[in-house]
Design goal:
Bound molecules: nicotinamide-adenine-dinucleotide, zinc ion
Number of domains: 2
Radius of gyration: 21 Å
Protein name: Alcohol dehydrogenase
Distance between the termini: 11 Å
Largest sheet: 7 strands, mixed
Domain Alcohol dehydrogenase-like C-terminal: 206-330
Shape: globular
Number of strands: 18
Strand content: 25-35%
CATH topology of the largest domain: Quinone Oxidoreductase, Chain A, domain 1
Domain Alcohol dehydrogenase-like N-terminal: 35-164
CATH superfamily of the largest domain: Medium-chain alcohol dehydrogenases, catalytic domain
Pfam families: ADH_N, ADH_zinc_N
Number of helices: 11
CATH class of the largest domain: Alpha Beta
GO molecular function: S-(hydroxymethyl)glutathione dehydrogenase [NAD(P)+] activity; zinc ion binding
Length: 381
């Protein structure tokens, strides 16, 4: 591996050539890291719904294709660019899809978890505006969500990387980098769920299930899983859901899930929308009691609006949302890594499938069909 430092590497990556098309797993070139960058050999990379949104709909509508997705990764530093002292070859890392330089005005502001080095553009390219990925015939390939973890090698600016303990299983802890930090953070850090509260989680994918796990830990009395796919219900129970509801199969005389929660439970203290569906956001908000908090986590299609009754804001219901569970990325990942290392976070519950990179399109299909919680792409060592 060390023999490649300073040279281009030829390796396999899953390249998306455009929305609506399957990815092509092919050989690409990965440039060496420039100043302030590191090149990483990816070990594990989870498939998150946000990748699916990009592939199926180019959700943000401004990603340049062809691109390499994957933002829930883990890996080992292969080489470092000039001036990099914080990382050395062999270090184990998790890439951050929101950078955290710890120096800029935003990083110094406790009220936000954004960083000035992170822009819409740097989601697609490196901070200097160029790419490190090339097709074999010399055309540029871009990143999505800043990481490009569906490639055997990626290049990251050091603002967007956290070093982790070398003893942990990289094929598991990659999940901390998105679904776990997101689900946990929204419960513990954004909503601050309290003991004996009544909680509903809309959407029982890995994000929603991590939220359920966290709500259980916070001592919530009632944790209701809401999903249109009832195959998720027994899984949600394992994570701590006390009951589950299918909004498409409500009792006679009940028109909406929010009506059910208002009439049966007097409204809920906390709701989490982990789908990305405007109707589900409205339901989650209108399910609250007067001191309730609704957190939007799912990514709804761009250009959509949520019609809500503003009088509910006047009576005290709160509507909010976040990326990364509202954590400064380094703080959130450190918190969860410590939890994992002390045996208090069961990542095995999330991993339902492991696939090789060449089978990545099958992993995306499993998610489209609702047949997986997390598929982890595992790379050859
Ligand atoms: N805010 C963030 O920081 C952040 C981070 C990661 C992912 N996300 C977003 O969170 C969402 C969930 O991601 P995931 O990886 O867990 O996805 P997933 O596909 O694994 O899970 C989504 C679940 O929602 C269910 N669902 C679909 N329509 C529904 C409806 N109308 N009502 C109730 N349930 C419904 C599906 O059956 C599925 O079980 C996605 O939109 C993803 O893009 C946000
Ligand atoms: Zn994600
Ligand atoms: Zn910053």
């Amino acid at each position: 591996m060390e023999g490649n430092a300073g040279k281009r590497i030829k390796c396999k990556a899953a390249v998306a050539y455009g929305p609506g098309q399957p990815m092509s797993v092919e050989d690409i070139y990965v440039d060496p890291p420039k100043a302030g960058e590191i090149r990483v050999k990816i070990v594990g990379s989870g498939i998150c719904r946000s990748d699916l949104h990009i592939l199926d709909t180019n959700i943000a509508n401004d990603f340049t294709f062809p691109l390499i997705m994957g933002h829930e990764g883990s890996g080992v530093v292969e080489s470092v660019g000039t001036g990099v002292t914080a990382f050395s070859p062999g270090d184990h890392i998790i890439p951050l899809w929101i950078p955290n330089c710890q120096k800029c005005d935003l990083c110094m502001n406790r009220k936000t978890n954004f960083c000035q080095t992170g822009t819409q553009e740097t989601m697609n390219v490196m901070p200097d505006g160029t790419t490190r990925f090339w097709t074999l015939d010399g055309k540029p390939i871009y990143k999505s969500i800043g990481c490009a973890a569906f490639s055997e090698y990626t290049v990251m600016p050091i603002e967007s990387v956290i070093a982790i303990d070398k003893s942990v299983d990289l094929e598991k802890v990659c999940l901390i980098g998105c679904c776990v930090v997101t689900g946990y953070g929204n419960v513990v850090n954004v909503a601050k769920v309290d003991r004996d509260s009544q909680v509903a989680v809309f959407g029982l994918g890995a994000i929603g299930l991590a939220a359920i796990m966290a709500a259980k830990e916070c001592g919530a009395r009632r944790i209701i899983g809401v999903d249109i796919n009832e195959d998720k219900f027994p899984i949600a129970a394992k994570f701590g859901a006390t009951e589950c509801v299918n909004p498409q199969k409500l009792p006679d005389g009940v028109a909406t899930v929010e009506q059910l929660f208002q009439s049966s439970y007097g409204g809920l203290d906390y709701t989490f929308e982990c789908v990305g569906n405007v109707r589900a956001i409205k339901s989650a908000f209108e399910s609250l009691n007067r001191w309730g908090v609704c957190v939007v986590v799912g990514l709804p299609p761009r250009g959509t609006d949520v019609p809500i009754n503003p009088w509910l804001l006047l009576t005290g219901q709160k509507l909010t949302g976040s990326f990364y569970g509202g954590y400064k990325p380094r703080e959130g990942i450190k918190y969860l890594m410590d939890k994992y290392m002390s045996g208090q976070l069961d990542l095995d519950l999330f991993v339902t499938n492991k696939l090789k990179l060449q089978d990545i399109n099958r992993g995306f299909d499993l998610m489209r069909k609702g047949e997986t919680i997390r598929t982890v792409i595992v790379f050859d060592k």
